[in-house]
Amino acid sequence: MIKHKLALALPLSMLALFGCSGSEDLYAPVEAPEIVNSFEPQKLFDVSSGGVDKYFSIISPAFVGNTLYVSSRNGYVKAMDAIEGSTLWSIDLDDEYENSDKRSARLSAALDANQNYVAVGSENGYIYVLDAKDGHVVWKKYLEGEIVSKPAFSGSGDALFVQDTRGRIFCLQSSDGSERWVAAKAMTSLRLRSQSSFIVVGDEYVISGQPGGKVGVYLQSTGALVNEVNISRAAGINDLERIADVSSTPLLLGDDLYATSYNGSLSVFSFNDNTMASTLGYSSSQNMDFDDNYIVITDDKGHVYCIDRQTGAEIWVNSRLTYRKTGAPAIYGNYVVVGDYEGYLYFMSLADGKIESMLACDNSAIYSSPVVHDGRLYVFANDGSIICLSHDPAGLAKAKEGTRKVELMYSGANANLMAPGVGESGVYAPDVMNEAALMARRAAIIKAVEDAQRRQRAAALAQKKAYEKARAEYEAKVKAYEEERRKRLSGFGLMPQEGVKSDAAEDVQPGTDNTQPQQAPAPQADQVEDSKASGFGL
């Protein structure tokens, strides 16, 4: 009798299991959280630039002074007044002859610009360089492979670096497009379509994330690969699981390289002693952001993390946006700002990750990281909407922006980015080069080492002065905020006691010793409280 019951029960239980598995979507996005907004950012303007429509392209504009340069997939490149939102000039590259038999110009939504030129690539294989003053085409060049990543000008602006989907890196003369050198790496059998943007270190090095979990360091003068950092190693039972591309743009902060990989980790590599300083279990294919104390990252599940720069400790995680295709984060004052696939914008407290404000900015997805410029927050939606917001009453966002620019400007200036011994032996020079070319490349590498040593001494002093100035301005803003808050509270008979920190002080923590490990446990995801919004546009 027992055997008969088991024989009947097993098929029924299996049927129940199979019935459940067919209807459950493990990767379905959660519903948008319900938030009561603690503040409403001021909308300064909302204009359109064309966008990327339904294509999954990351919009990456360029600011030069108060001019904003943007591109759209259908061919338009615009220069805009970043303060007013008005168009200064516009050009339609879809009208170019080479695009006449194509669906469109298929421009990348990522471009770079300097005082003289604007550079943008296309999936049709062309790189276009425009005059920054009026937008006319200075030159264009067919590179055969699709260009989906952001091009980059060298520190002086004389050279332009372009990467195609075949893994080739081109160094072109900015003025006429003539080829200086081409470097190529073997590509993996299966890789992500998105690619890392370049990190340009003056006129000496150019750094790029690569497939297979690597970050390459190249000499700008010759294209020699002088260092290759293994961020993560491929692991898994099939090609899909073994994808470990560094498709997000690494961060070079001082002597340390921060990089994330798909299916991999967040790794910190020290060029000072050529060792891996730490490896943390955060997998991401999106760009990170930072301030003096923290690194913020969005993982591939849509969770947002805040990590201590000094200790690597996790300060908090917000998992309220699971599988909502959460975009790359940006630090704006005392907030971490991200968008999602439904066009919502979230302001999370940098102190604990709580969502303080939620805005229905657009009907289109917001995948790109918002950009902070001159104390304002610029949001770029996929349909081309450019929304300029402001919420910086104490000027902290602008002060942080200044210290951030200084740190990025001088990062790598005090470090030798080459692998040990490469200056003497040229270990990464290709075997196919003849002796004369090999000796020329080796001499260039040795000269780069000598130049780096001179540059280190000069840059160290300049970096210290510039950083101290920006830091002083930052601390002055915090002090002014403290004083204003003290006066405001005293009007209600609530005078903060001496030695008690304000909320802003806890967020900013000027002068704190971040080398000490965190004593309090990090808030868990379910501790991040959010409640319903009554006025965010619904």
From TrEMBL:
A single Gene Ontology biological process assigned to it is: Gram-negative-bacterium-type cell outer membrane assembly
Q: Does the keyword Magnesium apply?
A: no
Q: Which residues form the Pyrrolo-quinoline quinone repeat domain?
A: 73-317
Query: Per the record, where are the segments of Low complexity compositional bias?
Result: 516-525
UniProt entry keywords in alphabetical sequence: Cell outer membrane, Coiled coil, Lipoprotein, Membrane, Palmitate, Signal
Q: Which domain of life is it from?
A: Bacteria
- Location relative to the cell: Cell outer membrane
Q: Which family does it belong to?
A: Belongs to the BamB family.
| Full protein name | Outer membrane protein assembly factor BamB
Give the gene symbol.
yfgL
